[in-house]
Amino acid sequence: MAVDPTIAAAPPAEPGPVVLEARGVSKVFPGIRALDDVSFALRAGEVHAVVGENGAGKSTLMQILAGVYRPDSGELRVDGAPVAFANRRDAEAAGISIVFQELSLVPQLSIAENVFAGRQPANRLGLIDRGRMEAETTALIRPFGLAAGPRQAVGTLSLASQQVVEIAKALSVQARVLILDEPTSSLTANETERLMATIRDLRARGLGIVYISHHLREVFAIADRITVLRDGTYRGTWRRNEVTEQQIVSEMVGRSFAAVSGPYRPRQFGSEPILQAEGLDRDREFSDISFTLHRGEILGLAGLVGAGRSELASSLFGLTPPQTGTLEVEGRPVRFAAPVDAVRAGMGYLTEDRKQAGLFLAMSIARNVAAPNLGRFSRGGLVDDRQVGRVSLEYMERLRIRARDVEQKVLGLSGGNQQKVLLAMWLATEPRILIVDEPTRGVDVGAKAEIHELLLHLADQGVGIILISSELPEVLHLSDSIAVMYRGRIVARYRGGEADEDVLLAAAAGLADGGPGAEPGADGGH
Amino acid sequence: MTESTAAATERRDNPVVAVGRKLLEVRELTTLLFLVLVSVLIGSRSPYFWTPENFKALVLGMSTNGIIAVGMTILLVAGGFDLSVGSVLALAGAVCGALIVNGVPIPLAVLGGLLVGPVVGLANGLLVTKVGINPLITTLGMLSIARGATLLIGGGYGVANLPPEFNQIGQAVVGGFQTPVWVMVALAVVGDFLLRRSRWLRQTYYVGGNARSARLSGIPVDRVTIVAFIVTATFAAVAGILTTARFGSASVTAGTGVELLVISAVVIGGASLAGGEGTVLGSILGVFLLQVISNALTLLNVPLYWQPITVGAVLILAVGLDAVSRRMRRLDGR
User: Fold this and answer.
1) Which residue of chain A is at minimal alpha-carbon distance from B329?
2) Which residues partner with A238 through β-bridges?
3) Taking a C-beta distance cutoff of 8 angstroms, is the pair A476, A263 a contact?
C-alpha cells in the first residue's frame, strides 16, 4: 500500500482486501429499532465514511464494530472469518480501535500515561517501565508531527493535538482498523486540516479507517467510499467520485419520519420584537449572532450537533454570558449575568440536557414545578405547598403527564413525561420568551405530537419561542422563521415554508456559503 | 434509552404497602424508632436512665452539638459540609474571653466572639463557591487555622476565671433547664420550621439536589451556599460562647472532634452528604441518639474507649440501612 499522502484529492486508492465486515446486522433497544439488517464492509487502505442524520444508527453500528454492543442478529467478520466480540478488549485484540466523539483522556496525566492507560509496559519487578513507555509513545506520535514530548501533560495540548493523542492511543494496540466518531466536532478549521493530513497518512500506511461525520464537505474531502444510513437501515455505498453531495443528502433525508410533522402551517404573529440580539460573540462557541424574535413567533435554530446552537441558548439565558454584542428584551437593553436575571425578565429555558441540568430527578413532580417559581408560590417568605400542589396538578393534567400523583419522583417517569415535567416547570413561570432545546429528544411519537401542539398553542398566546432541534421535520413544521448555524455562525435564514430538508441539511453541513452544490440555501435571504 | 421504566411505575400498590413505603421514606421515623429501641434497652438495664436528673444531663450534654447540627443540616442539604465548626467554637470562646479579660464590656465581648462565625463562614463560602476549592479542603484548612488562632489568643492554656455575670449566660437555669438547652430548642424549632417552609431555605434543597438545574432555574446557587456556610459557622460560634460561659473558661481544646460527631448525627438523622436531603428534626434526633448511647455506655460502666467505636458503628448501621432500603425501592421500579 504505497500511497503518497500528498495526492489525497486524487481518485481513491486501489482498494485492498476487506478487513472488517458486518453482514445483516440488527440491534433493538427498548422501544427503538436502532439497526435493521445493515451491511458494511471496510477495506484496508481506505477511508470509508458513514453518514446519516441524528438517530440514523451510525453510532450503534460503530459500537457494534468496536465490541461495545453485541448485535441481536447478523454477523461480524474480520479478514473474512466470523467473529463474536464480547467486549471492547476482544475487538482491540482483533486490531479494531475506536476513538469516540468525547475525548477520554486524563488531562493531568502525561501523553505517555494516557496512551498506555491501563496497559503500561512493566519491568521484571512489576513496576512501570517508564523509559520503554515513553520511547514507544514517541514512536507513535512522531509521524503526526506533534510538537510535544511524551512527558507533557495532555491538558496543556490543543484539542487537535489531544485528538492526535487519542488516535495514537487507539493505534497503540496494533490497530488495523480505526473508527473515528465525529473527530472534528470540537476542532477549528486549521486543526481539522491537520487531522485530515493525519488520516491520509494512516491510510497510506494501510489502515482501514471508518469516518463518521455530519460535515459533508469533510466527508467528500477525505473519504474513498461513503455509506449512508437512514432510520437504522442501509441505504447504499458509493465511491466518492461517483456520487454528488446532493445525492447523498437526499439519501440521508428520505421521507420516512414525516409521521409527526406535517408541512408548515402559516401563522400570524406580532410585529413588535420581544427579543433582539445584535452581534453576539463568545470564544470558540459562536460569533456574530444577530436575530429578532417577535411576539408569538417561533424561531427555529437548525444546525448540526456542535454548531453552537446550545451554546448560544445557554448564553442567551445568562449561564455563559456573551463576550460582546447586545441583547434587548421588548426594546430594553439587558445584560444577564446569571439565569436569575433571565428568569426575572420573563425568559424560560428548557435545556437539552434535562437529566443533568434541567430536572431534579430525586424530587417530586411538585418540587420540580416549584423550582423556578418559588417567588410566585410564596407568601410572606413562606412557600405555600398547597398552592404548589394545586398548580402542579393543574399542569400535570393539562400536559397529560402520566404519573401516580404530583408527589411521585421524576426519576421513575418515562422520557416523554420527564420532558413534560420540565415544560410544566417553565410554563408555570408564565414566560414571555421560551427557549426550547431539543424538546422532543428521546420522546415517543404521541408525546412528541402533544409537545408540538403545546408549543404552537403557547406561540398563539404571544410567547416568543426559540426552537432548537436536530430533527429537521420538527423545525420545518413549527418554525415561522429558521436560522441555520454552522460552526458558530448563522449561515442561512429562511421564512416558514420557504425551505425543505435538503436545503436545511445542505446549509447545516456548511454547503450554504458557495461550495459545490450549495446553491439552494445560499440565496435564502441574509 | 432508559425510558422503559415507566410502565413499571404505573401499577398501583395495595394501600398497606403504600403507607408502609411512605413511612419508610420519612427518615426521621427510622431514627426515632432506633432511639426508642435503645432507650428501652438501656432503661431495662439501668433504672437511673429514666430519671429527670439523667434527662436533664442528657439534653445539656447534647446542646452544643445540637446547636451546631441545626446549621450543619442546612449546609448538608445545600450539598456542602463544614469540618471547621469545632475550631470555630473554640475560637469564638477564646475571642470572647480575651475581650472580657481585657476590659471590654460583656455584651460587646459576646458580640465580638459571635462575629468569628460569620467571618469564618463567609471565608469558607467564598473559597468554595468563588475560588472553587472543595468543601473538604477548605474547611479542613479552616479547622487548622481557627484552632491555631485559638492557641495564639489563649496562649496555650485558654482564658480562665471569667466573671460570673458572663458565666450566667451559660449557667442560668430557667424552667429546670440550663440556658444552652433552651437556645438549642429555640434554634431547632425555628430552624426546622424555616427549612421546611421558608422560600429562601427551600432553595438549599434545589442547590444540593442538582446545582446545575438549580442555576438554570434561576436560583442563586453561590449565594445560597455562602449563606449556608455562614449560618453553620455562626451557630458554632453561638455554641462556643455558651460553652465558655457554662464552664467559666475558654479552653483551647474545646470542641475538638465536634465536627465529626455533628456530621455523623446529621447523616444518621437522614441528611445525605450528596445534598438535597435532610431535616433539622432528623438531625436533632440523631444528636439525641448519639448522646443517649454515650450516656448508656457511662451508666452501664462500659469503658470510655468504647464510645467512639459505638458512634462509628451506629453511623455505618444507620446509613447502611438507608442505602439498602433505597436499593430495594429502586429495584421496585421507583
Assistant:
1) A412
2) A226
3) yes
Rg (alpha carbons) of chain B, rounded to whole number: 21
Q: Which of A42, A37, A12 has its CA nearest to residue A26? A: A37
Task: Specify the pLDDT at position B122.
Answer: 98
Distance CA A392, CA A406 (A): 7
Relative to beta strand A73-78, strand A177-181 is: unpaired
pLDDT of residue A356: 84
Residues 380-439 on A with a CB inside 8 Å of B are: 381-383, 385, 402-404, 408-409, 411-417, 425
pLDDT tens-place string over residues A291-320: 999 999 999 999 887 788 989 999 999 999
pLDDT value at position B100? 95
| Interface residue A206 vs chain B (CB under 8 A) | no
- Which residue carries 400523583 as its cell? A405
Q: Which residues touch B91 (CB under 8 Å, ≥6 apart)?
A: B116, B120, B146, B147, B149, B150, B153, B237, B240
- Break chain A down into helix, strand, coil percent, rounded to 5: 35, 25, 40
d(CA A328, CA A335): 8
More confident residue, B288 or A502: B288
Asked whether the predicted pLDDT for residue B60 surpasses 80, the reply is yes
Q: How confident is the model at residue B334 (pLDDT cuts 50, 70, 90)?
A: very low
Say which amino acid occupies B331. Answer: L
- Report the Cα–Cα distance between both ends of chain A, in Å, rounded: 48
Answer yes or no: do A404 and B5 touch at CB < 8 A. Answer: no
The DSSP code sequence of B146-202 is HHHHHHHHHTTT-B----HHHHHHHH-EETTEEHHHHHHHHHHHHHHHHHHHBHHHH
Give the closest-approach CA distance of A226 to chain B in angstroms.
Answer: 28
Neighbours of B194 (CB within 10 A): 18
Nearest of A325, A349, A303 to residue A466 by alpha carbon: A349
Residue A417 has pLDDT above 90, yes or no: no
| Closest Cβ opposite residue A349 in set B212, B216, B220 | B216
What is d(CA A335, CA A316) in angstroms, rounded to the nearest whole number? 9
Distance CA A505, CA A34 (A): 22
Res. A459: pLDDT tops 70 = yes
Q: What is the DSSP letter of A487?
A: T
- How close, in Å, is residue B58 to chain A by CA atoms? 34
Contact present, B192 and B92 (Cβ < 8 Å): no
C-alpha to C-alpha distance for B53 and B51, rounded to whole angstroms: 5
Q: Which element (helix H / strand E) includes A496?
A: none
Of the partner residues A30, A367, A371, the one whose CB lies closest to the CB of residue B3: A30
pTM comes to: 0.73
**What's the pLDDT at B7?**
38
Query: What is the reported pLDDT for A19?
Result: 93
Cell of A406: 404530583
- Share of residues in chain A with pLDDT > 70 (%): 90
A525 vs B284, residue with greater confidence: B284
pLDDT at position B2 over 70: no
Higher-confidence position of A191 and B202: B202
User: Rounded to whole angstroms, how far apart are CA atoms A151 and A138?
Assistant: 10
Parallel, antiparallel or unpaired: strands A347-350 and A433-437: parallel
Residues 6+ apart with CB under 8 A from A123: A129
Contact A230, A482 (CB under 8 A): no
Angle at A413 between CA B13 and CA A442, to 5 degrees: 150
Are the C-beta atoms of A368 and A358 separated by less than 8 Å?
no
pLDDT at A250: 79
Contact yes or no for A53/A302 (Cβ under 8 A): no
Do A513 and A524 meet the contact criterion of CB atoms below 8 Å apart? no
Q: Is the pLDDT of residue A1 over 50?
A: no
Q: Are strands A324-329 and A273-282 parallel, antiparallel or unpaired?
A: antiparallel
Q: Is residue A514 very low, low, confident or very high in pLDDT (cuts 50, 70, 90)?
A: very low
